[in-house]
Amino acid sequence: MATAIFEQMDDHVIFEYERCPLRDRAHAVARVLPFVRPLAGLVWPAARRADRVQLSEDGILARSLSGYARIPWDEVGAVHRSRTTWGRMTVHVVAANPSRQIEITESMPAFDDLVATILHNAGQGEVVHLRAA
């Protein structure tokens, strides 16, 4: 997939994992029992990681088991790369006022294109690759 840059975007570009019955069931439970979303994010770190990311001219919208987060491009304060406890690469898109964050892990399909597009659209610089753990 070619990097979709701000000026060349369709209405929106979606990055998401392949369909998974377990993930679908977890989201269905969270829709019926909304209090599960913040609880899942507190007790299970992976629940905070985005499983669907939508980019548009306005910004980024991400869905995770712990809920939804939207950050307009002009509110992106930082984009950080880090590693999880188990060595998996993640990217955190951070905004303030109100404080919110989108966490995306490298297992997301087309991760490198997604990160490059986010950095370009948010005016946050370029990709810096970290050494393997």
Would you write up a description of this structure?
It is a single chain. The chain has helices at 21-32, 36-43, 111-122; strands at residues 12-16, 52-56, 59-64, 67-72, 76-83, 89-95, 100-105. With 133 residues, the chain is α+β, with helices and mostly antiparallel strands. The protein has a single domain (10-122), classed as PH-domain like. The strands form two sheets. It has a four-stranded antiparallel β-sheet with strand order 1-2-3-4. The chain has a three-stranded antiparallel β-sheet with strand order 5-6-7, with helices on one face. A hairpin with a 5-residue loop joins strand 5 (76-83) and strand 6. It is globular and about 40 Å long. The two termini are 27 Å apart.
In short:
By secondary structure, this protein is of the alpha+beta class.
Kindly, what is the distance between the CA atoms of the first and last residues, rounded to a whole number of angstroms?
A: 27 Å
Please list the strands of the largest sheet in the order they lie side by side: 1-2-3-4
Sheet-strand content, in percent, reads 25-35%
At CATH level 2, the architecture is: Roll
Q: Mind telling me the CATH class?
A: Mainly Beta
Structural class: alpha+beta
Please tally the β strands and state the result: 7
Please name the CATH topology. Answer: PH-domain like
Number of helices: 3
Order of helices and strands: EHHEEEEEEH
> What is the C-alpha radius of gyration, as a whole number of Å?
15 Å
The domain tally reads 1
**How is the main sheet built?**
4 strands, antiparallel
Q: Kindly state the mean pLDDT as a whole number? A: 81
